[in-house]
Each structure stands twice: as structure tokens, then as C-alpha cells.
Amino acid sequence: MPLIVGTLLLLVTAAITLTFVRREREHHVAAAKAQAAVTKKHIEVALRHKIEVLEHLAERWKIGGRIPIALWTAEVDHVLEKMKGIRYLTWVDEAGIIRRVPSAAHFEKVKNFNTSSDPDRKRVFDRARKTGAIAVSKVTERISGGRGFFIAKHVFQRGRPDGFLVLGIETQDFFEEVLGGGDSVLQISSDGKPIFRTRLAEDKVFDGQVPTASIAIDDLRMQVSLTPDQILSSNYSSLFPWTVFSAGSLLSVLVGLLLRSMYSVTQTYKLASATANWKRAIVNGLDMGVFSVGPDGLVKSFNPAAERILGYSADEVCGSDSIHLWLDKKELVDFLAIPPLNGRYVSLIEGVLNSEQNNKIFDNRWIAVRKNGCRINIRLTLHPVSVYGGFKSGFVGIVEDLSEKIQTESKIEAQKAQMDAVAKMSVLGEMAASIAHEINNPLTIIRFNLDALDFMFGYDGWDQVRAKKAIKGAQITVDRVAQIIRGLKMFARDSTHDPMILSDPAEIVSDTVAFCASKFRSTGVTLTFNPEALIQPILCRPSEISQVILNLLSNAYDAALKSSDKWVRIEAKSASAGVEVLVSDSGPGVPEDLHEKIMEPFFTTKGVGEGAGLGLSISKRIVETHGGTLQISAQSPHTTFMISLPLASRTKGPRGQSA
Amino acid sequence: MRNQNFELLQDLSILVVDDEPEIREIIAEAFEMLGCQTALAANGKEAIAYVMNNTVDLIVSDIRMPGGDGLFLLKYLRTVLFLKVPLILVTGYTDLSVDQLKEMGAAAVINKPFSAQRLIEVACSLPEICNRPRYKQAMKSEA
Asked: Mind telling me how many Å the CA of A518 is from chain B's nearest CA?
């Protein structure tokens, strides 16, 4: 754009300059024309002068001017001397023979020369005789050298024609006399041939375009030509057009540069304002409070979200050091470990401004005091803003309201716990029927033993051995019921806040197996449990581990039911890193691509209403809180879940020893 | 148990079917104390095998058992073997009501937990047991 304007201006300048040049040239041409006319006039005047001299001499001749001859000669000599350009004055008789030349200097060469042999001369003489007036010849090459023309006058003596007086004129001398030294560039030509040039015009070319003035007297034909070009370069030429051109070019370049800089300034301004608008839109649209603080520690901006979170309006806080209005002072003092200086807590700001770092340097949970005095949890982040050269021009603070987040987090935590409980209870529900059976059977046995004793009392069939056996049977069975109840209690209670206790993994497994054994037995699924002889105790919440085992058993049961040789096997053994409990079943196995997925919540292969798909995910979490892992073993030909639990000393779950 | 009726059961051949050995043993023991002969079976199939080769006066069976449950045994007896031998079903839980089970041919249904006394009372109250010809003969000969 600036380039185009610059070029246009340059073109306009050139056009103006050309117009000026043309006008100047026209002016010069006109001047040259005028000068040509003036020159012509000069020549004619000079010629008239010569003619008058000749006429005067002719009058003298008429009255016998030659006598006395001395006076005549003196007069002629005077004329020849005074009037430049006159080469000679001769007398030609009626026959055309040159008879006398008053000036002796040239006489020898032309004496008795018969002029009538030359038709041009003869014509001039004839005309002179016929008209009785002056006749002028054309310019010719002279026999005696040089170039010239002559003026002839028919003279009379005592009433008789007595030849002609002829005034020969040398063109070179004549024009030099007429034009003087002259500083004009002109050429005089005759019959198309140049016959005279001024000194300045010696090497110039005069073509048909130059201004010309023509002279025509009798046979004399002459043209005066002047070259305006030469006039231009001479004193008459003006510097004006070139001054205009130079000034115009300079102006064009300057305007171009100015426009260019203005243009780029405009573009930069547009870009900057667009960027600023972008930023403002982002900052105003953010859900997080954003404020900026200048190098003087005063708040410069405060976005709507910050207004909402902190309760102050932007007008209230901008221009003040109010960052300390909303930051809990006690915490600030604690954080900085220094008392306020002159009642102003400038240290944080100074600390940020003087920091060497250029990115986020302050990121903490903080307590903010809203305008209405209530305290909220925020996350405060301070980012120093450095400008060109590393000089810090302040910082931007970001305030995030954490109260909602904290609420949501706790809500999610609560929901998770609830979901765990529901999942656990649903497993318990599935187990309920078998548990009833599990308890009903021992009760029946106890009752039968008591009935036997009763019977023996009523009849004389008292048998010491049989009675003892009945009592023993009842006792054992009561213990068995107690174990089932213990397992059930262990499973059902909310154990998340239980302390970790040192327990024997084998015992936990057998307690768990006890209260679901009948479910397996009644459907013909063989459940075998082979604990290793010596398993080290682990630090755990037994009920949670029991829940995990029951979950795995429940899954294994469902899987085994579908197979032909129904069996479920539990193993417990010591491993290098702790204790491993393996639950395998005869089921069809889990496809390898699902190994990861089955641990995810709500993943289930069972139909609707048969399971929530939470068992494995909850089990995995429980095992992980114990610092262990739950994974599906890839090596085993059957589906084998492996619980790895670390030994007592190494157990450190996140929930830890809460008691 | 101090019921005179228990003599009704003397010399009866009783088959006890239960998957839990403790249960079937203690039931069998109770009957033995009253002078019955007892046989044990762990499930319906074993019970059917026994019934096909032996004379049985009364069957006491659990319902839920692996390898042929009580209902399978009942149906098999009634529809395949056409035996009318009385069958007492003993159960902790069931999807079927007592009436349904009786319709299917069960002589009686006892819910767990139960006492020996109740089992014997139910057994003695069965028409097949109390109207037993052998018992009547014995009574006559005594008289």
C-alpha cells in the first residue's frame, strides 16, 4: 500500500516535471522564433544600409561622381572601410565587363572579367537595368575565395546608361558584423546549405524542427535557424523543473515511508487491540478469578469471577494494595514468618516481584476472606509478568474457589462408600439363602443331640457313651454356628475405619469359606482350601480381606457352575514379597483382552440383575489400600485371581493405621 | 418323645437322604434309637439306587443336594418307579410352597431347623405308617 502510494506520487511528480519541461521548451522555442525574427530584421536592416550606400554612390555616379577621382576614391574607401562585410565595389560596363575597382587591393584578380558569361550574374544585371532599382544576387562561391553575394545598381552618366555599380558582400564578415560576437546558437543557410554559424553553434545539428525565419530579397534567399535545445542548456534554461522533480521525488519517498510506518503502526495497533480483546474475553469468561498487580504493588485489574469469588467489586480494589484485603492475614504472616512492615504486607508482592523465576512461583491453598467476612478455601497462584529484557512489570494472580470442589470431592467420596456398601450387601443378599441353610443345619444337629439326651432320660436306655457323643456333637456344632456368625459379622460390618490388626491369612480364608461352603456343596461345586502349613501373619483389616475373598469365591462359583467338572480352589502361600492368596476355578476363563477391563467398576458379564459389576473394582481397591495387588494370573490354565499382600512390616496403606 | 406312638415305627426300614453327613447321621441315629433300620444316601440318585434294590417304608429327604435333589427323587419315585412309599421332605428354604410339594406327592414337609420329636411325630402321623398291617398284627398277637 505505501509502496503503491509512493510510486503514484513519484509518477505524478514526473508528470508535473515533464509538463514544466515541455512548457519551458515551448517557451524557449517561442523565444528562439522571436530571436530568429529579430536576427532576420537585423540582417535586412544591415542589407538596407548597404543598398542605401550603393544608391548614394549611384547618385554620385550620375552627376559624374567619379570626377574628381580623388574625392570619389576617398569616398569609396571610406565606405569600404566603415562598412564591414563589403568585400569590393566594382564598376561593370554595359557589356558586363568589370572595368574598374576603386579599391586597388582586389583589382588585379577581377580586371576585365566578363560577368555576362555567368547566367545568374547576367540575370541580376538585366533585372537591374530593366527596373532601374537595386538587384540582389544569390549567395555564391566566389572565385576569389569565400562566399558572398552582390548588389548591383544600373547607373547613368549624363543621361546615358553607363554600366553598373556592384557592391560585393562577404557573407562571413557581413554576418559577423550584423550579429556581432553574439552568444546565440544560430545558423544561417542559403539554398539548404549552411553559410554561417555562430561560434556556439559550430558543432550543433539543425534539423527541420528548429525555429526558422526566412529572408527573400530578389535572388537572395536565406534562412535563420536557432536551436532551442541549445538555448535550454545555455543561460536561458531553468532549474525549476528539476528542482520540482527532486523535491517531488524526495516528498514521494518521504510520504511512502511515512505511510508505511503509519500503516505498520495501524496494523500493530489492530493486532494489539485484537490480542487485548481476546485476552479480556478469556479473562472475563474464566471461571477462575484473575487479577493483576503492577510493579508498585497496586491492583490493576480484577475480573468478574474474582468479584464473584471474593465479593469485592473491581472498582473497589483497583488502584489499591488490596491484595491483602482478601488474603487471610494470619496465614500470610505464618507463611512469610515475618510481621507486617508499617502495617502493610508488602513482602509477598515484593517477594514475587523480586523473584528470579519467570514462571509460576506461588501456588498454595489459601484461606481468603470475602468482603462479607466469611472465609473460603481458595487456591492462589501468582505468575510474575516479565516484559522485554526480563524486567518484571508485576504479576498475575489466579484465584480458584475450592469450596465447591471440596464439597464435590467429599460427596464423591461418600457416594463411593455408599456404592461399596451396596455392592457388599448385594453379595450378602446372594449369600443369604445359603447362610440360612448354613445355620439351619447346625441348629438341627444341636436340636437332635438334645432330643437324643431327652429321650435317654425318659427311658432306661441311658448310655454314657452315646450321651457323651450327643453332648460333644452339640458343642462342636454350636462352635460351628459361632464361626459362621463371626464370618458373617466380619463381612457385613462397616470396616473402613477398623484398625489394621495382625492376622493369619489362612484363618481369614477358612472363616470366609465356612459361611459359604454349603452354597458350593448344595450345587455340587467342589471347594478346596489348602493353606500352607506356615503362613506369616499380615497386618490388615480382616473383614475387608474376607470381603475380597468372598467376592472372588462368588465369581469363581458362578464360573465353575457353567463348567462340567465343577471346582473352586483356594490356595494361600508365602511369597517373596508377602502372602499370596490364589482363587482358581474350572470355569471357561477370562479372555485376555478383558483382563484389564474386568477390574473396572460396573463391568460385568452377568445379566441384568445378577450383579452390579462392582465386586472386582472394590476388591482391587481394598487390596491396594493394604499395599497389595489384585491381578488375574496369565500363566494359569484356569481362571486364577491372585491377591498379593505385603508382610506386616511393609504394609502402609493410604488409610493406614487410623486408630 | 415320650410318646407311645414311637413303637409304631419299630422295625421300619427308613432311608435318610441328605448331602450333609452330620445331618443324615443324626437323623438316622434318632430313628435307630426307636428301633428302626436305617439306610443313608447322599443324594437323589443314590437314594433311587437304594430304593430299586431294597424295600423301604419311609424316606426322609433334604431338597437341595448336588447330584439329584429331593424333588428329583420324589418325581422319579412317583412317575418312573410308581412307588407310593411315603416321603418326608426336610428343607431349610424352598421356592415351592408346602401345598405344591404335597401335590407333587410329598407325604409331609418339615422346615429346618427341626427337632427329632417333630420328625417322629410327623412320621407317626402318616397314614401309611399308622395303618401299617404289620403293626396291627403285632397288636392283635399281643392281645
From this structure: 9
| Nearest CB neighbour to A521, from listed B66, B92, B117 | B66
Residues sharing a CB contact under 8 Å with residue A94, sequence separation 6 or more, in sequence order: A161, A162, A163
**Do B92 and A437 make contact, defined as CB atoms within 8 angstroms?**
yes
Contacts of B30 in chain A (CB under 8 A): 448, 451-452
- Of all residues in chain A, what percent carry a pLDDT higher than 70? 79
pTM recorded for the entire structure: 0.42
Q: Which residue has the higher pLDDT, A650 or A18?
A: A18
Give the model's confidence band at A23: pLDDT under 50 very low, under 70 low, under 90 confident, else very high: confident
Helix (H) or strand (E) holding A626: none
- φ/ψ of residue A115, rounded to 5: -75, -15
Which residue in B30, B36, B32, B28 sits closest to B61, CA to CA? B28
CA distance A65 to A452: 208
pLDDT of residue A341: 47
Residue A100: pLDDT band (50, 70, 90) is low
Q: Chain A within 8 Å of B95 (Cβ-Cβ)?
A: no
Q: Give the closest-approach CA distance of A426 to chain B in angstroms.
A: 19
User: Under the phi-then-psi rule, with left for phi > 0, alpha for psi from -120 to 50, and beta for the rest, what region is A337?
Assistant: left
Q: Taking residues A13-38, what's their average pLDDT?
A: 83
The better pLDDT of the pair A425, A335 is held by: A425
**Residue A319 pLDDT exceeds 50:** yes
Can you list the residues of chain B whose pLDDT is less than 50? 1-3, 143
Q: Which residues pair with A392 in a beta bridge?
A: A386
pLDDT at A236 over 70: no
Residue B75, amino acid:
K
In the prediction, which pLDDT does A470 show?
A: 86
Phi-psi domain of A595 (left: phi exceeds 0; alpha: psi -120 through 50; beta: other): alpha
pLDDT, position A65: 63
Residue A375 CA to residue A350 CA, distance in Å, equals: 25
Spatial distance between the Cα atoms of A410 and A403, rounded to a whole number of angstroms: 11
The C-alpha atoms of residue B87 and residue B57 are separated, in whole angstroms, by 9
My answer on whether omega of the bond before A442 falls inside 30° of 0, hence cis, is: no
Q: DSSP for A295-346, please give it.
A: TTS-EEEE-HHHHHHH---HHHHTTTTTHHHHB-HHHHHHHHTSPPBTTB--
Beta bridge partners of A644: A580, A629
Tally of CB atoms within 10 A around A626:
26
DSSP for A524-584 reads T-EEEEEE-S----EEE-HHHHHHHHHHHHHHHHHHHHTSSS-EEEEEEEE-SSEEEEEEE
Residue type, A330: K
Q: Angle of helix A403-458 relative to helix A464-492, nearest 10 degrees?
A: 170
Q: Is B1's CB within 8 Å of A524's CB?
A: no
Q: What is the DSSP string of A87-156?
A: EEEEEE-TTSBEEE-SSHHHHHHHTT-BGGGSHHHHHHHHHHHHHSSEEEPPPEE-TTSSEEEEEEEEEE
Q: Does the beta-carbon distance from B30 to A451 stay under 8 Å? A: yes
How would residue A148 be classed by pLDDT, with cut points 50, 70 and 90? confident
d(CA A276, CA A282): 10
CA–CA dist B110, A359 (Å, integer): 81
Quote the pLDDT of residue A654. 42
The confidence score (pLDDT) of residue A430 equals 65
Q: Which three cell numbers stand for residue A518?
A: 454349603
Predicted local distance difference test score (pLDDT) of residue A657: 40
Task: Please give the backbone phi and psi of residue A206, each rounded to the nearest 5 degrees, phi first.
Answer: -110, 105
Q: Average pLDDT of A542-571?
A: 85
Cβ contacts (< 8 Å) between B29 and chain A: which residues?
448, 452
The closest CB to that of A451, out of B19, B65, B115, belongs to B115
CA A64 from chain centre, in angstroms, equals 110
Q: Which residue of B has its CA nearest to A520?
A: B66
Q: Residue A415's pLDDT is what? A: 85
